[in-house]
Amino acid sequence: MIKDTLDKFLYWTPRILSIIFICFLSLFSLDIFGNSYNFWQIIVGLFMHNIPAMILAIILIISWKREIVGGIFFIFAGLFYIAMLVKDGIELYQLSWILFISGPAFLIGILFIIGWNRKRKMK
């Protein structure tokens, strides 16, 4: 009984968290509406802002069946974000950015890897 509950938790939690995380990242693109852009500039701006979310959505689709892919790529996405943030030096306030962007990516990646490892050991 507990094993089934844990298996369901490890199956659904990273997938649900990924969807929530991708939606959270997509919210940042809404700042494009605060400027006085024309229609096509808004479309291009929305597309450019949502490239990371689209990439993670593709990774999630692949990860639905191949959890190791999600584990590796979500952890890589967190590391990539930190690297991009730190490359020009880091300010103290940017640590919260790392926590809110890379933290969930790491958690999702770790949960995917734990689920993959658990399935692999059961086979």
List the main descriptive attributes of the protein structure presented here:
80% helix; single chain; globular; mainly alpha; 123 residues
* Biggest beta sheet summary: none
Q: What order do the helices and strands follow?
A: HHHHH
Q: Give the fraction of residues assigned to helices.
A: over 70%
Could you tell me the strand content as a percent range? Answer: under 5%
Structural class: mainly alpha
Question: Radius of gyration in whole Å, from Cα?
Answer: 17 Å
Residue stretches low in confidence (pLDDT < 50, at least 5 long) are none
- Mean pLDDT comes to 92
N/C terminus separation: 19 Å
Number of strands: 0
Q: What is the general shape? A: globular
**What's the tally of helices?**
5
Task: Give me a quick take on this structure.
Helix content is 80%, strand content 0%. With 123 residues, the chain is mostly helical.
Would you mind describing this structure in some detail?
Helices cover 80% and strands 0% of the residues. The chain is an all-alpha fold. The protein has one domain (2-122). The model has no long low-confidence stretch (mean pLDDT 92).
Topology:
Blueprint: H1 2-27, H2 39-49, H3 51-63, H4 67-86, H5 94-122
